[in-house]
Design goal:
Strand content: 15-25%
Strand order of the largest sheet: 1-2-3-4-8-7-6-5
Number of helices: 5
Radius of gyration: 16 Å
C-alpha cells in the first residue's frame, strides 16, 4: 500500500507540468545558463549519471511515458548530500542515446500553500532582477486530476525569445484530495524547452 501511494503521489507530480527554485549565474541571457542541482537544460543526462542508471530508471515503474513513448519523465530522489530539492525530474527521449534533457524541474513539498506562495514570491523577485526586459505572466488553473475543480495551480511564467520557459508555481491540493491521497502542497521550478512544450500542447494528448 505504501508503494502504491508513493507511485500515485509521484504520478500526480508528473501530471503537474508547471513548476520550481534554482541556482543561476548572474545576468544570464540563455536558459542553458540556469542550473538545478548543477543540471542544465539541453545537456546530456550522461553528464550526471551512468548509462546503466539511466536505463534502469527508464525501466522503473514510476517512470512516466508520453504518447508513443516519444518522451519519458524520470525522477531522482538523491543527487547529492547537500541538494536543495527533494526530487529532481527530467524529461528525455528514451530512444536518444545522448539522453538530451528537454525539461528539468525541482520539486519541494510544503505543509501549506501559504508557505509555497511566500517562497514563490522570493524566487520570482530574484529572477526578475536577472531578466529586467522580460516579464512574468500569471496563470491560475484547475488541476485536471481533481475533478471537483478545487485543486489549483498558481504559476508564474517567463518566456525567452526562443520560446523556452521558466515556470515557478505552487500546487494547492483541495482538502478532499489531501485527505484521500495524503498529498501535500508543493512547488516546482521548471526549465522547459520550446520543443517539448510545443509537442505536449499540439500532439501529446491528441
Amino acid at each position: 500500500m505504501k508503494l502504491c501511494n508513493k507511485l500515485i503521489k509521484r504520478l500526480s507530480l508528473y501530471l503537474f507540468l508547471i513548476l520550481f527554485t534554482f541556482q543561476t549565474s548572474s545576468w544570464a541571457d540563455d536558459i542553458r545558463d540556469f542550473q538545478i542541482e548543477g543540471m542544465s537544460l539541453y545537456s546530456s543526462l550522461l553528464d550526471y549519471f551512468t548509462e546503466k542508471k539511466i536505463k534502469d530508471k527508464l525501466k522503473d515503474e514510476s517512470t512516466y511515458y508520453y504518447k508513443n513513448n516519444k518522451y519519458a519523465i524520470i525522477g531522482f530522489d538523491e543527487i547529492s548530500s547537500d541538494q536543495i530539492y527533494e526530487r529532481i525530474v527530467v524529461t528525455i527521449k528514451p530512444k536518444d542515446n545522448k539522453y538530451i534533457i528537454y525539461e528539468i524541474r525541482g520539486e519541494i513539498e510544503f505543509n501549506n500553500i501559504d508557505e509555497c506562495l511566500d517562497k514563490q514570491k522570493i524566487i520570482v523577485n530574484e529572477v526578475s532582477q536577472l531578466f529586467k526586459n522580460l516579464k512574468f505572466k500569471d496563470r491560475e488553473v484547475k488541476h485536471g486530476v481533481d475533478k471537483t475543480g478545487k485543486s489549483i495551480v498558481y504559476a508564474k511564467e517567463l518566456e525567452f525569445e526562443n520560446k523556452d520557459e521558466i515556470r515557478i508555481g505552487c500546487l494547492d491540493w483541495s482538502d478532499e484530495m489531501t485527505k484521500k491521497n495524503n498529498w501535500r502542497d508543493g512547488m516546482m521550478v521548471l526549465l522547459a524547452s520550446d520543443e517539448l512544450l510545443t509537442w505536449v500542447t499540439e500532439e501529446a494528448y491528441k
